[in-house]
Amino acid sequence: MIYGAVVRIAGKLPLLVDLREMPAPTDLAVLCTNVRTRDGKQPQYIEDPQAWFLIPIHEITLIEFPAGSMEPAAGMPAERNGHAASVGANDVMVVEQPPDSELLESDEDLLARIRQL
User: Fold this and answer.
1) What pLDDT sits at residue 84?
2) Residues 84/95, Cβ–Cβ less than 8 Å
3) What was the pLDDT predicted at 102?
4) Could you tell me what percent of the chain has a pLDDT over 90?
5) Which of 3, 30, 58, 84 could lock 67 by a disulfide, CB 3.0 to 4.6 Å apart?
6) Which domain holds residue 83?
7) How many CB atoms lie within 10 A of CB 93?
8) pLDDT at 100
9) Is the pTM value of this prediction over 0.70?
10) Is the separation of the CB atoms in 5 and 18 below 8 Å?
11) Are the CB atoms for 65 and 19 separated by under 8 Å?
C-alpha cells in the first residue's frame, strides 16, 4: 500500500490518495482510495471516502510519492544509508543522493566552465 501519494490531475487541484500498488507503465487507470484534498478535506464530488476510485491515466499529469509513503517489501529495510527506499510492484529501487561535498564540486566545475565562455 502506498499512503499519501499526490495525484495531480490536469486543470484541477492536487489530491492526496492511497494506492494499492505502484502504477505500471501499461495501466489505463490508477486505482486509489482515501481521496482527499491537500488540507485533508473530502472533495465535494465524493460521497464515500472509503470507496475505491479509478482515475483515468490520461487525465493525470503527475503522481508524486513523498518519502516514507511506501511500505517496504517483506524483509527489506525501510531505509538504506539514511535514504528512503522506493518499493515498486515488482522491484526495489533505492534512491541515493551524493554527499554535499560532491554537489559543491560539480557546481564549482560548472561555474568555471561558464566563466570560460
Assistant:
1) 43
2) yes
3) 52
4) 35
5) 84
6) 72-117
7) 9
8) 53
9) no
10) yes
11) no
53 with 82, same domain?
no
pLDDT at 114: 79
H-type helices in the chain, by residue range?
100-116
SS3 of 63, please?
strand
Nearest-angstrom CA–CA distance, 80 and 37: 31
Give all strands (DSSP E) within 1-117, no chain letters: 2-9, 15-19, 29-37, 52-56, 60-64, 79-80, 83-87, 92-94
pLDDT at site 78: 47
Find where cell 544509508 sits: 81
Number of domains in the chain: 2
pLDDT tens per residue across span 71-102: 654 444 444 434 444 444 444 445 455 555 55
Do 89 and 67 lie in a common domain?
A: no
Cell numbers found for residue 1: 500500500
- The CATH code of the domain that includes 44 is 2.30.30
